[in-house]
Specification:
Layout: H1 9-21, E1 32-37, E2 40-46, H2 56-59, E3 63-72, E4 75-84, H3 90-96, H4 100-103, E5 107-112, H5 116-123, E6 129-134, H6 140-150, E7 153-156
Parallel strand pairs: 5-6, 6-7
Antiparallel strand pairs: 1-2, 1-5, 3-4
Helix pairs in contact: 5-6
Length: 172
């Protein structure tokens, strides 16, 4: 009889999200997302260029710079945000390749905290929970606030350890 401890569901589904992320060819970050209803896996997706279009590893990143006014403790600061616009985010691909009916009442496990755009899309998708591992501090405050307003459970797996074979070096 085996004495091996079985993984909890959060670890199981986040492990799958990290495995899915290994399909990404983005040089900046590999992101994976999975759609789960109850204990049933309904879909997976990762970040990358549209199907049939050269990705960042082939054509280079298309970096867009934006500036955002952030107020912290009454102090205003302009924060520069850089993002690649060649890549469709994992959460966006997940929404593109799953059906609305499947998303109703479901959870999304994603390796990284959703950016503002993805959070907006997820908020309108019918899901009731987002579980993530790595934080995205640039958008955390406003995304957390919106999820509270929508009544969507939004939680980070603090002590989670991704499978070793899924880890990559993230460039800035």
């Amino acid at each position: 009889m085996s004495t091996e401890v079985r993984k909890d569901w959060d670890t199981y589904f986040m492990d799958i999200a990290y495995m899915v992320s290994t399909r990404s060819r983005c040089s900046r970050r590999h992101v994976g997302a999975v759609l789960v209803q109850g204990k049933k896996l309904l879909g997976t997706a990762y970040n990358g260029a549209p199907t049939g279009v050269p990705d960042c590893s082939e054509a280079g990143c298309m970096i867009s710079e934006e500036y955002e006014l952030v107020v912290t403790d009454g102090q205003e600061e302009m924060v520069k945000k850089q993002r690649c616009i060649r890549t469709i985010h994992a959460e966006q691909n997940l929404l593109l390749f799953t059906d609305r009916i499947d998303r109703e009442g479901s959870s999304v496990y994603v390796t990284d905290e959703p950016c503002w755009t993805c959070a907006n899309m997820l908020a309108n998708s019918g899901i009731t929970e987002i579980v993530f591992h790595r934080s995205y501090p640039k958008d955390t405050g406003k995304v957390t606030n919106m999820m509270e307003q929508k009544g969507i459970t939004f939680r980070r797996l603090e002590n989670y350890q991704p499978p070793r074979e899924t880890m990559m070096t993230v460039s800035n």
